[in-house]
Every structure is written in C-alpha cells, then in structure tokens.
C-alpha cells in the first residue's frame, strides 16, 4: 500500500541538441497538444514487420497524421515528440496511418514482404494489416514488474477532453472497480510508460510525457480529492487519493524514461538522469537550469483538514 511519499524532485532544463543524420524533419500540421519533434535526435532503428493485433490495435495511439503526410521521418518525429518507444506505419496505398506506442500488443513478426506497401514518398510503409516498426534506441529495456515500484508523485493537474496522458490500459480482473495506485502503476509499468495518472477515483492513464500546456497551467492540489475505489473501506491513514472530477493525480518513473528527449543532448551512459524532464515542466522561455521540490501526494486526512480549515475561515 502506498502511504505518504516524501521526496525531492530535481528538475533540469537543457536546450542542447545533437545532430542525427537522416532524422531532419520539416514541420507539419499536427495536434498542437502533441507536437512532433522538429529538433535533431538520435536515429531510430528498424525493428521489423509486425502483424496487427487480433483484437484492437497493436499500437496504443493514432497520431492522426494525414495519409499523404505519413513518411518514416514524420511518423518517427511525432512519436518522438510524445516520448513513445515505437513508431509504426501501416495501411494500403493512400490509406497510411502513423501510430505510436511504448509496448507493441502483438508478438507476431512477419516477413518484410508483409510490409511492402510504400508511403507516398517511397519510404517503407507497412502493409494492409502489418506495421513497419521503428524503435527509439534511447530507451532502456525494462522489467514491468520491478519497475512498478519507481513511480513518484509530481502533482495534481486539471484534465480536459484531450487528456493529459494518451493511453488508458485494460485493467484485467476486477477492472477499475477495485482501483488502487499500485494497480495503476503496475498497468503502466507493464507497458513501459514513464507517467501514470489517476482520475475520478477509478480511471488509470499512462503516457510517455504530460502535455506541456497542462504543466504550464500549474498544479491545483485540492481538486484531486476523490478516494481510490479500492481503498474506500480502509482506515483513514491507508486510504489513497485517485484524482478528482477532471483532475489527475500524476506520477513519474525515471527508470522508464528515455535518455534523450526531443531537443536534449544524449547524456553519457554513466550519467544519472534527472527524475523529471525539462520539457514537461518548463517552457522554452524559462531559465536554462532550475530546481524545484514537489510536495508529497495529499492523503484523505490532509484533504479533510484542508476542507475544515477553509470552512472555518
């Protein structure tokens, strides 16, 4: 059971980039909430031709990039911009889609002949029911079970219909009805996502990053005021807060993050990464280096005290 967390989160900002041959990308019209990376970054590697999943999609997020704009570089740039591990292109001629994920929901490799329908510019573009898959080498391999212990509270943020994080995992047995923080952490870690979020007492979300506009808007601690569905019957000290109505309790796991976000210089292998990345926390106009400390997540007792204090004023 997760109790109060007490830790400091060091925030680091850098504006350095590194050149990456073959990864220069021109700007295109994409969702401003999830912009593509238009900086130089380490070249992604081809990971193979994967069959589509039997149920649902093998990839968690549809970028929405128009078919005539789908190329290897544009798809990778979108997935890099949102901090996913994989980019996948599939579809018939004139019906290309670019999708992103941090966990491929299929283990079905197929021959590269199954990914023989090129993009409009001639790039490898998957097939009708198969993906040409590209992988970001700046992510480390991970163990979904042990990684679940690494999430740290970073704040409560207001959400909207476009969502703070892009993926809502299937929760398996029990669904969302017995939701706890641990259950959400386990689901997000199993799929390799550095961010986990809880909303409305039972909704779990995962993502490679948090929308920059949400971070810029700042935290609203007291709007995350709903008990996790699976802890309501516990004694007060063991109850957990799982967001609120259109409010998300957000957590970050540095062990599952990339070593090089969009626009950052790749660090030496031995260098320990900061626990929260700059482009999630600071705007481009911010100082080049800043530090901050995040308070621990509120408990049910904290919220009751805050409410009582507000009422007595």
UniProtKB/TrEMBL annotation:
InterPro entries: Kremen_rcpt, WSC_carb-bd
Span of the signal peptide: 1-19
PROSITE patterns noted in UniProt: WSC (PS51212)
Membrane topology summary: Single-pass membrane protein
Stored SMART domains: WSC
Region (Disordered): 261-280, 287-313
Primary site of residence: membrane
GO cellular component, one term: plasma membrane
Protein name: WSC domain-containing protein
Cell compartment(s), UniProt: Membrane
Keywords in alphabetical order: Glycoprotein, Membrane, Signal, Transmembrane, Transmembrane helix
Regions of compositional bias (Basic and acidic residues) in chain numbering: 261-275
Stretches assigned to the WSC domain: 150-254
